[in-house]
Design brief:
By secondary structure, the chain is α/β, with parallel strands linked by helices. About 35% of the residues are buried.
Length: about 800
């Protein structure tokens, strides 16, 4: 109790959040008492509680009232006086944007990393997060907890899951200076020292003084500029004030067609700044303002600050503006303003932007990373645009948005400015200081490190650019990688920073999938730097793969015609359903999920080297004299206490016995550059989805590399699939793929090779394809150059198809 009092008092003084791990079957009974102790330490504390669980609400509530000990805190008082918001885990998105003083996470087995990150971010500084582990009585039994998310990781051939992630969760909590673990009798099981807490408080004071001074100076500098001065006073941090100033500067000159990109981690106040900037746009006379977002329910904070801004402008509801709500979805659809002249703030879905493009004066995009890339690229430079996106946190895009998208947008805006002879400006603003809690909040630091949410750009390569020929591919031992050792954590950060730098949309669940999914593996391409000097080698590339296939024939036949999404085995199920061939799912394969090369050395041959080594490894099943037991790297010269206790992190593939495979597959968003890369490395296209991905705006493409004894030999099943694919592709190209780049189309056609397709097929059946009149017109056109070609226009698609098929046989 003394420890809980100390933790609650100091956390509230420093606006730190705290974590309590409650263990035991009757641990739930202590929550009202803990809440009572927590609330009495300060009168200004937010006493509201977010209670999350997976089973039925009424059962939870009844059981809760039965087990509470009335001598501590009367249950009637707790449920009547305390504002408790109950929420299912699968409905957690409904509470985003709300703030609570305490969060109780019951049914620990139903938690996923994504849900954990979302719920923790709703707690304000000085608040408390309680994890309920009521299925075990000791932390020693943590490995026995079976998580519900494990069902997503299972496949037909891989069902045994090792709970590395949950063990890492418990070990990582010890790094949080505001964490304690207690049992059902309120006895301390694990805690952090007071010295670390005091050191953290001292460092916080220095940062707070600097930020406050800069914030007050900025407010003072715009004191005489109304309404800007009053709007900036509503911001909470220096970063927010600076961002609002940048937005206002862009608003003040419409002719510049500025694009301002606001990036920040979760909980930095992006929506609040956008809301105040919208009010500033109204003050500057903008008439048609549009706001778009993937989900209108997440705009509550934005509209709240729009109303705060309108109030500063002395606008009153029903007198100067009117709120129009959507009757079906119950969100704010439009704000009509009729004070000086008719103005409007209208919500629209991303796919509706093109319809009103000519009317837009200012477009505000919330969570731009969730909007399809082609839409964003098409509108940039057409009008003033404010876009915000989360670069880390549970909604994070990783570093893809900053590395690739912003760079591409800058290039396209520059080209558009040169062609139109206009000045187009793009600005980047970032928010670093959190709003709900202090800058150095221990819980945020723990969560970012545990889930790898706040990865910086991949570290600089110490060895420069070594010759790809001398780089080696190693298998990473996941038991060592997720062991929570300092060396392992540093290496994990290196690997994961590369993975998220190339992927457009990332989720904390991805980390647990890599950690626990039984069919998944991580391989890395490292420099030829000797490991004897006891430093971590540079990671040049990372390959995330998954074993697929080997599905029972009866199971495939049973589910082939059913429209049911089955976990795992993506390529076997897609190809089996596409070609109605159950035998393909029986083959054994590997799917490449992500291939990431360090940004500094991309397009320099390292990706091809990585794939070449991977193919060599799987084809080495046909070689003889394979060493037994797979000896590992790092044995003699790289010893320390960590490596003596657990297995080495890097396993040499040269001494590893490979499984027998039939193919290596990859599924990716189809672009010209990516297709050339996979085609160059010997992969064959067999499937392109006609519908585009909603986020990336790209077609999904599947390519296979057959694993055979003879490298040049192409199996017949690959040829048959390619023949069927190309027939369908060419038959639908004029309507399903009519916007595809022509060069990419010809590259796809050239990727298909047939030796047995006879050119005489069309010669024998030419009269079935063309009528006598058609043949006469063709010969007449050849002999008479003055003959108008438009009379043959209807024959062009047929002739082109014949030319393409004949070209394949040469």
């Amino acid at each position: 109790r003394e420890k809980i009092n100390f933790l609650s008092f100091n956390s509230k003084n420093n606006r730190f959040r705290s974590i309590i791990l409650l263990i035991g079957s009757d641990a739930k009974k202590n929550i009202p008492y803990i809440h009572y102790m927590w609330s009495k330490s300060s009168t200004e504390i937010n006493n509201s509680v977010l209670w999350c669980y997976s089973n039925n609400f009424s059962k939870n509530l009844l059981s809760m009232k039965k087990v509470i000990n009335p001598s501590y805190y009367e249950p009637e008082n707790f449920f009547s006086l305390v504002k408790v918001r109950y929420c299912y885990y699968n409905e957690i998105d409904k509470v985003l944007g709300n703030t609570f003083g305490m969060c109780v996470l019951e049914n620990f087995e139903a938690l996923s990393p994504n849900i954990m990150a979302k719920t923790i971010e709703t707690v304000e500084g000085g608040g408390l997060i309680i994890f309920l582990l009521n299925t075990i009585n000791s932390l020693d039994k943590i490995h026995s907890v079976s998580m519900e998310i494990y069902k997503k990781f299972e496949s037909e051939s891989y069902k045994t899951i090792t709970g590395r992630f949950i063990e890492r969760f418990v070990f990582s909590l010890n790094s949080c200076s505001t964490f304690i673990a207690i049992d059902e009798n309120l006895k301390i099981i694990s805690t952090h020292s007071k010295k670390n807490f005091e050191m953290l408080s001292k460092n916080l004071c220095k940062n707070l003084e600097y930020n406050k001074e800069a914030f007050f100076l900025l407010i003072k500098s715009v004191k005489n500029l109304e309404p800007l001065s009053s709007l900036i006073e509503k911001t909470r941090t220096f970063d927010q004030a600076r961002a609002l100033l940048t937005f206002t500067e862009a608003i003040s000159n419409k002719s510049l067609l500025s694009t301002v990109i606001l990036t920040a981690a979760r909980g930095r106040g992006k929506s609040a700044v956008l809301g105040l900037a919208t009010a500033a746009a109204v003050a500057y006379g903008y008439g048609n303002i549009y706001i778009t977002a993937p989900n209108p329910e997440n705009l509550n904070t934005y509209f709240a600050f729009v109303f705060i801004g309108l109030k500063i402008l002395n606008y009153e509801e029903n007198k100067h503006f009117e709120i129009i709500q959507d009757s079906k979805l119950k969100f704010i659809a439009k704000i009509e303003i009729f004070c000086t002249h008719r103005q409007s703030i209208t919500f629209l879905f991303p796919n509706e932007i093109e319809e009103v493009k000519k009317d837009i004066e200012l477009l505000i995009i919330d969570e731009a990373a969730s909007i399809p890339i082609p839409i964003l690229e098409s509108i940039c430079g057409s009008f003033v645009i404010f876009m915000s996106t989360t670069t880390s946190g549970y909604e994070g895009t990783g570093k893809y948005f900053t590395l690739k998208f912003i760079k591409n947008i800058k290039t396209k805006l520059q080209n558009k400015a040169n062609s139109k002879k206009k000045i187009l400006i793009i600005q980047e603003v970032s928010l670093n200081e959190p709003i709900r809690y202090s800058f150095q909040d221990p819980v945020e630091k723990w969560l970012n490190e545990f889930l790898c949410l706040d990865n910086d750009l991949p570290p600089i390569l110490l060895s420069g650019c070594p010759d790809p020929m001398y780089c080696k591919l190693f298998l990473v031992d996941r038991n060592a990688l997720f062991s929570s050792h300092k060396i392992a954590n540093r290496f994990l950060q290196k690997i994961f920073s590369l993975l998220i730098s190339v992927h457009y949309k990332n989720s904390p669940d991805d980390l647990q999938m890599i950690c626990d999914a039984p069919s998944h593996r991580i391989l890395i391409l490292v420099t030829p730097l000797p490991l004897s000097i006891a430093v971590l080698p540079d990671v040049l590339g990372v390959l995330h793969i998954s074993y697929e296939g080997q599905i029972a024939h009866k199971f495939v036949e049973k589910n082939l015609t059913k429209n049911i999404k089955i976990n795992g085995d993506l390529i076997p199920w897609v190809i089996s359903k596409e070609f109605l061939d159950s035998s393909f799912a029986e083959l054994s394969g590997v799917r490449i999920i992500r291939l990431a090369i360090h940004p500094d050395i991309q397009s320099m041959g390292y990706g091809s080297k990585l794939l070449k080594n991977l193919v060599w490894f799987f084809q080495s099943i046909f070689k003889q004299n394979i060493l037994e037991n797979g000896r590992c790297l790092s044995d003699k010269n790289f010893k320390n206490s960590f490596l003596e206790k657990i297995s080495p992190m890097l396993i040499n593939l040269e001494n590893r016995n490979p499984p027998r495979l039939d193919y290596i597959g990859v599924s990716f968003g189809l672009t010209q550059q990516l297709f050339y890369f996979w085609k160059k490395n010997g992969f064959k296209v067999i499937f392109i989805r006609s519908q585009k991905n909603k986020i990336t705006g790209e077609h999904v493409c599947i390519m296979l590399y057959p694993i055979t004894k003879e490298i040049e030999l192409i199996p017949n099943w690959i040829k048959n699939y390619q023949f069927d694919f190309l027939t369908k592709f060419l038959g639908t190209i004029n309507w399903k793929f009519n916007k595809m780049n022509a060069i990419l189309v010809f590259s796809i056609v050239q990727n298909v090779h047939f030796q047995y397709f006879n050119q005489s097929v069309y010669v024998k059946h030419v009269k079935k394809i063309f009528s006598n009149t058609d043949i006469y017109k063709i010969f007449f056109y050849i002999e008479n150059s003055a003959f108008e070609y438009k009379t043959l226009a209807e024959l062009f698609p047929v002739v082109a198809k014949i030319v393409i098929w004949n070209e394949l046989t040469k």
